[in-house]
């Protein structure tokens, strides 16, 4: 099933890239929404990106990873660590969605620090997944 592993890696790359790009989109949307004027009529890019790119990539990465786990029957300590890092990435993903809703509703308080906190959690999850996957060939049983 190399195609399944390829799908998993491709979806994970898109999802991780999305988690790194969403904070920039949110920061820009926050600046545009605070400055009233013609920028109020701009298209809702953060919501479109979140719903059309980031979330489908996340769901595809999680589903294909689950299928890989079920098909190959792999179980080890590294998998538990990887799933913990994926939980951090999912939490950051959900936080970005919440922040998009706050900006759309006009509630700008605490959005900037929460955006940085979610980026930190996402970055920690991404780096943890990468570290665990690269260390996995050391045969952690």
Automatic annotation (TrEMBL):
Query: Which cofactors does the annotated protein need, by name?
Result: heme b
Topologically, how does it sit relative to the membrane?
Answer: Multi-pass membrane protein
Q: What is its EC number?
A: 1.3.99.-
Annotated GO molecular function terms are: metal ion binding; protoporphyrinogen oxidase activity
UniProt enzyme class: oxidoreductase
Provide an example Pfam family for this protein: UPF0093
Question: How the cofactor binds, per note?
Answer: Binds 1 heme b (iron(II)-protoporphyrin IX) group per subunit.
Protein name per the record: Protoporphyrinogen IX oxidase
List the source organism.
Answer: Halovibrio variabilis
Q: What is the lineage of its organism?
A: Bacteria, Pseudomonadati, Pseudomonadota, Gammaproteobacteria, Oceanospirillales
């Amino acid at each position: 099933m190399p195609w399944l592993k390829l799908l998993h890696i491709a979806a994970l790359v898109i999802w991780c890239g999305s988690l790194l790009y969403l904070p920039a989109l949110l920061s820009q949307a926050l600046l545009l929404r605070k400055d009233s004027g013609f920028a109020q009529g701009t298209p809702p890019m953060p919501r479109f990106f979140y719903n059309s790119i980031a979330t489908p990539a996340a769901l595809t990465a999680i589903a294909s990873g689950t299928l890989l786990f079920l098909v190959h029957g792999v179980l080890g300590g590294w998998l538990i660590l990887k799933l913990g890092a994926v939980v951090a990435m999912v939490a950051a993903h959900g936080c970005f969605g919440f922040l998009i809703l706050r900006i759309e509703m006009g509630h700008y308080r605490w959005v900037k620090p929460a955006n940085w906190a979610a980026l930190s959690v996402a970055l920690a999850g991404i780096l943890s997944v990468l570290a665990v996957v690269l260390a996995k060939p050391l045969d952690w049983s």
